[in-house]
Amino acid sequence: SEVSRKPGMLAVSLISGSAYTLPSRARAPRMDAAVAKDAAFGASHTSFYTDAVAKDSYETLGEVLEAKCADPELRSVLGTMFDGCGTITEALRKELVTVAEKQESVFGDVQLGVDVLADDLMWDICKTEPLIKEGASEEEPEVREMHADGKFCVCWDPLDGSSIVDNNWAVGTILGIWGAETGILGATGRDQKASLVALYGPRTTVFVTLDDGVYEFTYGANGVDGWLCSRDRIQISQESKIFAPANMRAAQDLPNYAKLIDYWMTNKYTLRYSGGLVPDICQQFTKRQGVFANPTSESSPAKLRLAFEAAPFGLLVEKAGGKTSDGVSGASILDTKITGIDQRTPLCIGSASEVDRFNLVLGLGK
Question: What's the CA gap between 366 and 356, in Å, rounded?
Fold first, then answer.
């Protein structure tokens, strides 16, 4: 179960606890399967509505971690990170979006107050969690030692989507967790022990890799002060009709990328792209399909950071049955060695058939 959070403090996530059972209430009548299938496409035949059906009970975070994360130390670190995501949720609901008084990003990015708040929280977690050996933030180009005898190295983007958060669009936190035996530098995304991504929208959801797959947890759902498991063992289908084309400026230099976008449009794929990395990829877990493409060119260079963004998402998507491409050789992004903490990379990620199409059309892997 989850213990209530006091103002200004992190909540404590307990491993013990019982499943949350919904109160008895009248159920809405269910549509005939054939009618439901037709209705799922909406009037334009391009909408993809949810097919999630309410359950009588939902497992808590503690219960699922106990059953699906065999390593007790990793379980503890994951619980702490969930607490942090809950605290960031509360801050986003209360803080105005303004430029931070003190600009500390070494990359020259304009920092907002909520950026600094989220990043400070992550550093506080690393300093107080003895299991964390090293920490690295997307805001700074260095790996810092936290606890010499720690077991894990954590790499994070505290608030991805700063350029759209003032629009009140969905943003997120991205986390990769490596073992101390590999560290972050010199390792690959495949060396990660786990990764998780928090999506802050109308609801806060977290997608996390556990021993047997990818799980979604929802914060504060159904009146519960904590996390309930809202999806388990998520699978991304091989085929897709949803596309999210990033870095479209590159299509001016890459005729084959323009050709690929034209293919998706001509074949009436559904465009679902917000400009926020977290929502644009996380839709693949809820819709169980999709492709996010971000190739690069000389005039539109890579912006995605391998350690902070591409590798954590790569682990999540591949563990859910999807596929990734490094955008250069066509190989999995999880096989790219992290040689610098600020290393940038192109990326294609999502349903396997569409990632294969990306590699084929752009002439990768030849």
Answer: 13
How long is the chain?
Answer: 366
Query: pTM of the full predicted structure?
Result: 0.86
Q: At residue 214, does pLDDT exceed 80?
A: yes
Q: How confident is the model at residue 22 (pLDDT cuts 50, 70, 90)?
A: low
Closest CA to 219 of 313, 54, 87: 87
Spatial distance between the Cα atoms of 338 and 187, rounded to a whole number of angstroms: 6
Q: Provide φ and ψ at 76, rounded to 5°.
A: -65, -45
What pLDDT is recorded for position 246? 96
Across the range 176-186, mean pLDDT stands at 98
* Alpha carbon of residue 266 to chain centroid: 29
Rounded to an integer, what distance in angstroms lies between the CA atom of residue 233 and that of residue 250? 35
CA 94 to chain centre: 23
The Cα 251–Cα 244 span in angstroms is 14
Of the candidates 139, 71, 109, 126, the residue with the CA atom closest to the CA atom of residue 307: 139
- Regarding predicted confidence, which is higher, 37 or 334? 334
Q: Which of 325, 198, 209 is nearest to 260 (CA)?
A: 325
Tens of pLDDT along 60-107? 999 999 999 999 999 999 999 999 999 999 988 887 656 655 645 554
Contact (Cβ atoms closer than 8 angstroms) between residue 85 and residue 204: yes
- CA distances, 116 to each of 123, 171, 175, 209, 343 (Å): 10, 15, 16, 27, 22
Residues β-bridged to residue 228: 60, 218
165 with 97: CB under 8 angstroms? Answer: yes
Q: Which two tokens stand for residue 296?
A: 């690069």
Q: What is the number of other CB atoms lying within 10 angstroms of the CB of residue 229? A: 21
